Amino acid sequence: MLNTKEKIIDESRQGEALEGRRLPKSNGRKVFIESYGCQMNFSDSEIVASILQKDGYGITKLLHEADIVFVNTCSIREKAELTVRKRLTEYNKQKRKNPKMIIGVLGCMAERLKSKFLEEEKIVDLVVGPDAYRDLPNLVEEVDGGRKAVNVILSKEETYGDIAPVRLGGNGVTAFVSITRGCDNMCTFCVVPFTRGRERSRDPNSILQEVRELSLAGYKEVTLLGQNVDSYLWYGGGLKKEFDNLSEEEKKTSTNFAQLMGKVAQVDRKVRIRFSTSHPKDMGDELLHVMARHENICDYIHLPFQSGNSRVLEMMNRGYTREWYMNRIDAIKRILPTCSISADIIAGFCSETEEEHQETLSMMEYVRYNFAYMFKYSERPNTMAQRKYEDNIPGKTKQRRLAEIIELQRGHSLEILKKDIGKTYEVLIEGVSKKSDNELYGRNTHNSVVVFPRENYNVGEYVMVTVESCTSATLKGKAVK
Ligand code: 5AD
Ligand code: SF4
User: What is the CATH number of the domain that holds 109?
Assistant: First the structure.
């Protein structure tokens, strides 16, 4: 077992191994990066670490030895922002002990609040939006010179495609690879189009290269990330265009998401491929057929529906109806009969009636999700919904509707997992169980967590596990030789 310090050095070497380069001479300063929110934020922090490492900074997991603290923030719901503000208060205490410490805010909150952050939160020295990370070394220099630094310029081209991320998550088994940045969908409830800017796709060659390097470094699972992976379209760079708007030449050389998945799956058959997030308006049958053809693409789709009612979906500007969504579910069940499906659901969006809420519940009955991420609607400043609609569902009603959704989902999850008892699944071992050192955990192709006795198995191995029991969130079993 490595101790924490050795582990940090070891992890920073992964970046070196991936790029086949030596690290530049250390400048003696250490950076602590903390990430909140979606997988994309965690992936971005790995890009930030890479940019800083190239400039001679060390990356540490120990707050007390950090010269610089970066918080990569989330704005998706009010609660996420409150959590970050609390953390900043903690850092403030740390800074009193070590006045030279630099505190920077990265990500969506930085982009949303911009320089307001410097005025409101006196302890922040640096505010950097998601497209300005290459500028971080210069911005730190500015702070060294006694100034506060802000760069929140959004880009139409930046994909960080040439940057080999330093893997911070640290199990050496599973990794995220971002394939698009930004979002053009403009769901009325969502801040992401404002904080992450316009949608751009990354060069498929740089994606394939990154996956190859991960495979060489021993990784066994790659998750391709984008706000809407289905609208991935590479035709030579720049802002997203619809396929129909490409020139004949661009059409011939373009790559869509289904084609990208086919290529990524062939890099290494021992590397599992996952992806997130799919959008019901764009998810076509071509992708489902590619998934059916490649065994190492996991049998799992995250397909948020947000609401089961067409009027609410229209107000949300989701670009599909209840019937369209059901049609996509039917296509999944037809082409990938065993595919597990998860969703995002919002309870209590503006003007949602009791009957409309019932349609969300009936959609859950129709699909029977393996699991779901369930939220109360949280009004976000400057979104279309905030400007156009009244947030008029009382807090208590939102809470009750959410509780009904959670309760129904718990039942469905349990029912679906119970059907797995007696079945044997290939599980990729991700780590030692939090509850017991004698147990390991991993996930099966359906993204269900599977816990089983450790015996002589190791993290990073594939093992066949027969399921013996379950809760609504976890399968328990035993490895079979
Ligand atoms: N309120 C509640 N949930 C939201 N989401 C996005 N914006 C909001 C909001 N304002 C949820 C959606 C999305 C997921 C990432 O977060 O369900 O799919
Ligand atoms: Fe937000 Fe909609 Fe884009 Fe998802 S698809 S990031 S919910 S705007």
Answer: 3.40.50.2300
Residue listed under structure tokens 């499906």? 341
Q: Are 58 and 138 found together in one domain?
A: yes
Strand partners, 275: 224
Give me the domain span that covers residue 257. 171-298
Structure token digits, residue 153? 């310029």
Same domain? 142 vs 255: no
Q: Which atom of ligand 2 is nearest to the CA of 228?
A: 5
Please report whether residue 310 resides in a domain: no
Same-domain pairing of 200 and 104: no
Measured in angstroms, how far is the CA atom of residue 4 from the centroid of ligand 2? 37
Coil, strand or helix at 85: helix
> Quick one: pLDDT band at residue 22, thresholds 50, 70, 90?
low
Q: Computed from CA positions of residues 365, 414, 411, 434, in that sequence, does the dihedral angle turn out positive or negative?
A: negative
Nearest atom in ligand 1 to the alpha carbon of residue 76 is: 7
Domain shared by 244 and 135, yes or no: no
CA of 202 to the centre of ligand 2 (A): 18
Range of lowest pLDDT (18-32, 39-53, 277-291, 450-464) = 18-32
pLDDT digits over 412-464, tens only? 999 999 999 999 999 999 999 999 999 999 999 999 999 999 999 999 999 99
Of 258, 250, 237, nearest in space to 159 by CA: 237
pTM: 0.93
Q: Which of the listed residues 187, 276, 316 should we mutate to test ligand 2's pocket, taking the one with most ligand atoms within 8 A of CB?
A: 187
Same-domain check for residues 289 and 176: yes
227 CA distance to ligand 2 middle (Å): 6
Place of tokens 């060659």: 205
Residues 192 and 278 in one domain: yes
Residue 330 CB-half CA count within 13 A: 6
> In terms of domains, do 115 and 204 share one?
no
Kindly report whether the peptide bond that precedes residue 277 is cis, defined as omega within 30 degrees of 0.
yes
For residues 263-272, give the mean pLDDT: 98
Query: What DSSP letter does each residue of 36-91 carry, written as one string?
Result: -SSHHHHHHHHHHHHHHHHTT-EEES-GGG-SEEEEEE--SSHHHHHHHHHHHHHH
**Residue 306 CA, ligand 2 centroid: distance in Å:** 11
Last residue of a domain, one of 238, 273, 298: 298
